[in-house]
Structure prediction request, 352 residues.
Amino acid sequence: MKKVDVIVVGQGIAGTLLTHDLIEAQQSVAIIDVNLKASASRVAAGLINPVGMKRCIPSHNAHQYFPKAIERYREIEQKLDANFLEVKSILRLFANQEVKHDWQIKFSNTNMDRYISRFFDCNTYPFLNDNNGSAEVYPSAHIDLPTFLDKSREYFKSEGLLLEERFDFSQFDPNQGTYKSLQSDRVIFCEGFRVKDNPYFKSLPLSPTKGEVMTIHIPSLDYFDKIISKGVYILPLGNHLYVVGATYNHTNLTDELTTEGQSFLRDKISDILSVKYEVISSFAGVRPTVKDRKTLVGLHPKYDKIGVFNGLGTRGALQGPSLSAEFSAVLVGNQKNTQNIENQRFMRFFTT
Prediction:
C-alpha cells in the first residue's frame, strides 16, 4: 500500500490551491479528480474583487485577502511558468442617480476611497449605456481559472500525483485513512457542490446554485481594459471577445443551459451595451454556495483523518489563497487556531 501524507479529493480552485500549499510544505499528496462539466471552477469569473458592488462596502477581510491572493497567484505563475493573473479595474455602472449618490457618500465618509479610484460622468464611454455615470474600483484583478486549473493539472500529472477517477466511497475507510491502495494521514474533500452526496459531510448546509455564462463577440470593440459591472460582469478576453455572467438558479442543478438563464444574460447585455454583439458560446456550472454564505473548512468531529475545504463561493478567487494557507498549516501541524476558519460554527453542523 502506498503511503502519502494527504489525499485531496477534487481539483477545482479549492483543491488546486490546497495541493500547491501542501506540496510546498513538503507534504506528499495524491489528488483524486475527474473532470466534470458542471464544475463551478470551470465557469467561474475568477474575479478578485475587494468591493461588494451592490452595497458599496469592502468584502469581508478584503484588506487581508486581496494582497495575499495577488502574491500567491504570482508565485504559482512563476512555479508553473504560466500567465493567468491580470490586475485591472472594475467599472461599476450606476443604474440610477440614487445608487450614484450612495457611492459618492460612502467614498467621502467610509474609507471607500482606498478602493474607489475615481468617478466618471455619464456617457463617458460611447459603447456603453452609462446615462448615470460610473465609478472605477482599483485595484482588482482577474484570474483565468481554466488556465490556472489546466496548468496546475499538467504539473500534478508530471509529478505523478493525479488519479483521474471518481472517488469511490465503497473503497474508503475513514478510520484508517485508506482508499484502495493508498494510505493517508488526512483525506480532504474539495468536491464543490457534490459534497452534498458525500456520506460524511452531507449534513453541511450547502445550497448549490447554478450559474450560466456567455462568451460574446463585439465587432466594434477590440479590447476594453476594464471589467464592466452592472447586475452582471462583462470581462474582456481580447480579440473582440468578452465573457458575461452570471445567473443564479437554485432549482435546476444540471449542466444544461436554460432559456431563462440565456434570456436574462441577453437582457443584461442589452442594458449595458449600446453596440451590436453576437453570442459565441454559453456554459453552465454549479456553485457550492452555503446558506449563511460562509466557507466550509475543517476536520470531521468523529473521523479525525478526514476534512473538507469547500464553499468558497463567488469570492473563491479572492479568499481562497488565504484560507488554503491557513488550513494547510493546520493539516501539517504548524497551526492549531486559525484567524479566518470558524471551527465552532463548523462543528455545529454535525450535532444531532
The chain has a mean pLDDT of 92. The chain has seven helices and 19 strands. Residues 47-143 form one domain. Helices lie at 13-24, 62-80, 97-109, 145-158, 259-272, 316-331, 343-348.
